[in-house]
Amino acid sequence: MKARYSVIVPMFNEEQVISHTYERLKKVMDECGDTYELVFVNDGSRDRSAQMIREICERDEHVKLIDFSRNFGHQVAITAGMDYAEGQAVVVIDADLQDPPEVILQMIEKWKEGYDVVYAKRLKRHGETMFKKVTAKLFYRLLSSMTSVDIPTDTGDFRLIDRKVCDVLRGLKEKNRYVRGLVSWVGFKQTMVEYEREERFAGETKYPLKKMIRFALDGITSFSHKPLKIATYIGFFLSFSSFLYLFFVLFQRIFFTSWTVPGWASIVGVNLLFNGIVLMLLGVIGEYIGRIYDESKDRPLYIVSETKGYQNEEQLDRR
Ligand code: UDP
Ligand code: MG
């Protein structure tokens, strides 16, 4: 029988929490009084996470494992989960128990009221570094000032989506995925529940600074051309001011010949400054071109090395 609810859990090196996560999710989902499946997407963990889920699969038929051939990233893992999920309502939740599974029941209530997307807004974030909180806050504000899509601030990927939204999202094949933005972009009837984000149950964050920056760039470049526009404006401004300066230089050269020799500092200064800015703007353009290149290669988003928990091929065919 097809499950009514699918819970997607992306995991990357989560051996310290994953069995607790399973227990708590199971408890909550047993309470919801309907059929469900727990889809664990192993994003190339190098620890025992996958093995642990494999063992749970043996004794619990609700549990499924999608094992990636390597680490493809959090957002891609979520996407894969959506490809495999069969439920009428699909929930995405982090593996580290920062998103309390109990909130899922509230989401389901809202879904039954007729909402197609129920996202969870973080009122507070416990046990995260000041740096993370501040950068996250700034990022969400910056993003919303740059895009015309109304992406709710302070929400992660913890959310419930209806089958029809899931199907639409599956049709969006862009490679640099910023899932929470895509969910806003597709529209439908959306609402939210509020919660307090808890401390990580165990282990440490799998989002080091490098991944955070990449994530932020994906978010902005997927939903905004503003950086390109800003690049153009700065370009115009620089050309205009250089033009004015040129007048000044010519004026000096013609009327005050004796002053022109000590111009060395200003030439070097202007050169350094302008070259820096030009390189930076080239970088902005490069970010976009790199993404266009990624899209044009048209490689699959992820590679699955193994699936477990599916009784027959037919169940897998729906991908
Ligand atoms: N994750 C993943 N692939 C990655 C990085 C993270 O699947 O490359 C998963 C991770 O296991 C967790 C979720 O994404 O379930 C969120 O990661 P994390 O809790 O480390 O991020 P934070 O809460 O610190 O932002
Ligand atoms: Mg976390």
From TrEMBL:
Transmembrane annotation, as ranges: 230-251, 263-289
For molecular function, the Gene Ontology terms on record are: glycosyltransferase activity
Per UniProt, subcellular location reads as: Cell membrane
State if Glycosyltransferase is listed as a keyword: yes
| Keyword annotations | Cell membrane, Glycosyltransferase, Membrane, Transferase, Transmembrane, Transmembrane helix
The UniProt record lists the keyword Metal-binding:
no
Q: Where is the Glycosyltransferase 2-like domain?
A: 6-167
Q: Quote a single Gene Ontology cellular component term.
A: plasma membrane
One Pfam family of this protein, by short name? Glycos_transf_2
Family assignment?
A: Belongs to the glycosyltransferase 2 family. GtrB subfamily.
Q: Matching PANTHER family, A to Z?
A: PROPHAGE BACTOPRENOL GLUCOSYL TRANSFERASE HOMOLOG, UNDECAPRENYL-PHOSPHATE 4-DEOXY-4-FORMAMIDO-L-ARABINOSE TRANSFERASE-RELATED
Protein name, UniProt field: Glycosyltransferase
